[in-house]
Design goal:
The chain has 341 residues and is of the alpha/beta class. It has a domain of 235 residues: NAD(P)-binding Rossmann-like Domain (Rossmann fold). 43% of the residues lie in helices and 16% in strands. It has a 7-stranded parallel sheet with strand order 3-2-1-4-5-6-11, sandwiched between helices. A two-stranded parallel ribbon has the order 7-10. A two-stranded parallel ribbon has the order 8-13. Helix 1 links the parallel strand 1 and strand 2. Helix 2 runs parallel beside helix 4, helix 4 packs parallel to helix 5 and helix 6 packs parallel to helix 8. It starts with a strand and ends with a helix. The mean pLDDT is 97. The structure holds nicotinamide-adenine-dinucleotide (NAD) and thymidine-5'-diphosphate (TYD). Thymidine-5'-diphosphate binds next to helix 6 and strand 8.
């Protein structure tokens, strides 16, 4: 008998890639996507999945206990993977309340339903941002699972709070949980408000590329499929109650990522526009994934040089997708946030 797996936030960037990963690699399982379809979630992203008898989409909000209860009663999931979240640091600086509500209360509502329905595994998709940042002049330092929580933004504070709650539900109620904390992802279906897709689309349109401050902040980039493979392993073989860092030792300064994109697209560096820095901007993220590798044998498969080209090709061949998702609310956000047209 296959498993019923509820994937919350499966119409967003990483969640949708996970849906496709599971449909391709776990043909015996049923994947039920539960997503509120905020500005970041798009049904067009799931168009191919909708054709599969293995897949069901349910529109709903993880903070709505009645809707979550109805879903669990209908599907009786063995596994719940929680990707649903407000995920953009810049938006969290503008509207923190929404982040606390979705990311913390939503996690609590899901875990209460898991308790009630005897779910075998609740997996929380978290982020390395819960550790705060590392200094730029100490390349020898990495985030391990023992690094203390030290969040900088309302987004990362909300994710850290949710992680604490997940651990508390394990200790207090014995809920079978696991948590993964991944570094920055890139790849197909990435909403164009985030660095890599934003820079690709602006370069294509010969619009300015807004780099915060000097562009020297460092992020540790992982191709999204490698993250999906890690979660797939953790939910099936990872220890209950465990925490796993996910990352591929691929640190890059923002300015260098932007220059690579310009180079691949054959666009001039004169498009780069240094703009006001993000408030509380984290300097460097760098994950040590040794535990995941030694316990579960996970290693990343995609090199940045290949992944970034694949990603750029994907945006070049999916113009309809990004034209649709960047209409409406996004235009207002972009103009307000950057003061650019
Ligand atoms: P995203 O913003 O692209 O997608 C979020 C999805 O959640 C959307 O489909 C949205 O409609 C849905 N959603 C939002 N609020 C909801 C609610 N109340 N109920 C139901 N659905 C709701 O985000 P992403 O980049 O795919 O990130 C997914 C998860 O992975 C998040 O939890 C994020 O914290 C974590 N994460 C992201 C990264 C990254 O680089 N993007 C890295 C590490 C961890
Ligand atoms: P982002 O994709 O928002 O991810 P996160 O903040 O969660 O790491 O940003 C990645 C890096 O790029 C971060 O250091 C902020 C920077 N950045 C810019 O320089 N300009 C931009 O327009 C955006 C969106 C991000």
């Amino acid at each position: 008998m296959g498993l019923n797996i509820v994937v919350t936030g499966g119409a967003g960037f990483i969640g949708s890639n996970f849906v496709y990963y599971e449909l391709a690699n776990r043909p015996g399982d049923k994947i039920i996507c539960f997503d509120a379809l905020t500005y970041a979630g798009n049904l067009e992203t799931l168009e191919e999945a909708m054709k599969s008898p293995q897949f069901r989409f349910v529109k709903g909000d993880i903070t709505d206990a009645a809707a979550v209860g109805k879903l669990f009663a209908e599907e009786k999931p063995e596994i719940v993977v929680n990707f649903a979240a407000e995920s953009h640091v810049d938006r969290s600086i503008e509207t923190p309340g929404l982040f606390l509500h979705t990311n913390i209360i939503g996690t609590q509502v899901l875990m209460d339903a898991c308790r009630k329905h005897g779910v075998r595994r609740f997996h929380q998709v978290s982020t390395d941002e819960v550790y705060g940042d590392l200094p730029l002049d100490r390349p020898d330092l990495f985030f391990t699972e023992q690094t203390p929580l030290h969040a900088s933004s309302p987004y990362s504070a909300s994710k850290a709070s949710a992680d604490l709650l997940v651990q508390a539900y394990h200790r207090t109620y014995g809920l079978p949980v696991s948590i993964s904390r991944c570094s920055n992802n890139y790849g197909p279906y990435h909403f164009p408000e985030k660095l890599i897709p934003l820079m690709i689309l602006n370069a294509l349109a010969d619009k300015p590329l807004p780099v915060y401050g000097a562009g020297e902040n460092v992020r540790d980039w992982l191709y999204v499929e490698d993250h999906c493979a890690a979660i797939d392993l953790i939910i099936r073989k990872g220890k209950i109650g465990s925490l796993y860092n996910v990352g591929g030792h691929n640190e890059k300064r923002n300015i260098d990522v932007v220059k690579i994109i310009l180079q691949v697209l054959g666009k001039p560096e004169s498009l780069i526009r240094h703009v006001e820095d993000r408030k509380g901007h984290d300097l460097r993220y760098a994950i040590d994934p040794a535990k995941l590798t030694s316990e579960l044998g996970w290693t990343p498969k995609t090199k940045f040089e290949d992944g970034i080209r694949r990603t750029i090709d994907w945006y070049l061949s999916h113009r309809d997708w990004w034209e649709h998702v960047t209409s409406g609310e996004y235009v207002e956000y972009y103009e307000k946030h950057y003061g650019l047209k």
